[in-house]
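How a chain folds remains the central question behind the approach discussed here. No coordinates are needed to read the tokens, only the vocabulary itself. For completeness, the protein is quoted in full, as a sequence line and a line of structure tokens:
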Amino acid sequence: MNVSVVGTGYVGTTLSACLAELGHQVTAIDVDETTVERLNDGGAPIHEPGLDELVSAHAGNRLRASTDHAAVVDTDLTFLAVGTPANADGSIDASILRAAAEDVGAAIADETDYHLVVVKSTVLPDVIESQILPAIEAAAGTSEGETFGVAVNPEFLREGTAVEDFTDPDKIVLGTDGDGRALDLLRELYRPLIEETDPPVVETGRREAATIKYANNTFLAAKISLINDLGNVCKEFGVDAYEVADAIGLDDRIGERFLRSGVGWGGSCFPKDTAALRAAAESAGYDPLMVDATIEINERQPERLLELLDSHVDVEGKEIAVLGLAFKPGTDDIRGSRAKPVIEGLLDRGAEVVAYDPRAVGEMAEAFPDIEYADSAADALADAHGAAIVTDWAEFADLNAEFDAMADPVVVDGRRIITRREGITYEGLTW
């Protein structure tokens, strides 16, 4: 099939490369000329394991990039995969998505063949009918069902494993509101993947499909916050929360995944989606107590880490190492990173922060330009009076002699990546 993808961020680039890998002809569209040029030269604009290889393999063949939205005319369907950032009150800003919808509508205005517009961006259910559909209709000069249709196909990609998540999905959700043409196109698009991996395919309405994404992420965020809350209780009683989690995870009603307690969740999805769902519920007159608690517990975890550090070191005027800046290992993304409130808390206490991350130093330096950044974990730890472990990069598990070089070997581990041993003062956040 011929497919166009508007937006070349984490979702759009991964989607484009993986669809090309499935055998489709893909045109990635973005307003950023530098990004378009990079894609056409065979390089991915973001860091994601396995993505560079796919882009390199298909660039100039099954994958090309363009700044011209008119390219959608030559495709069977168009994915909208642009950002829906959060407003100050947590609600989503759909203006970028609406503009992309208008561009696509204008491009297909003179077409008589059916064209499917697929919303991949994360939006609340009412946004499709109230903003996206009217934007396409106004720009195209026609009504839905005549020469175009709109579907919702949410993504469930985790940064750091996005390519793997696409190629071996837990589920595929197709929201079409009974539009047979739309459903047939999406079935054909995903047919190679479905035949190879046989995932559950959920065929539902557009509003349901949009809500599934929010419900999915909020449920997972709530599970992490609950195990963190339980972990905090365990810590107060000298109980190892990980041994407790291992046991309760054996209950098939609970499951073992997302039971690693620690300093909390971050990233581009969980913070934004939980906040958006809360804002939407409140605007509808409903008080979402569980969602509120999920967010509150997550916001509290970095301060608990700092309080443990305070119990061993007066950090004022002292050098403190922060290891791990990306919100999770395997990415350079610092959106929602728990390292941010940890750094802010240390600065408020008058500490001198030395930070290190294998990939995210450059990104964090833009947010905190006045702290020191080390070239290695060893450099960050040398002469430090304390260390906060915020991201569980595998290389941190091998640290040993590096702790001996600290002025005061106090280690507060927010991810259970460091092995407790003689010679260091070690505190696990929930164990």
About this structure: The chain has a mean pLDDT of 97. The radius of gyration is 23 Å. The chain has 15 helices and 14 strands. The CA atoms of residues 250 and 256 lie 7 Å apart.
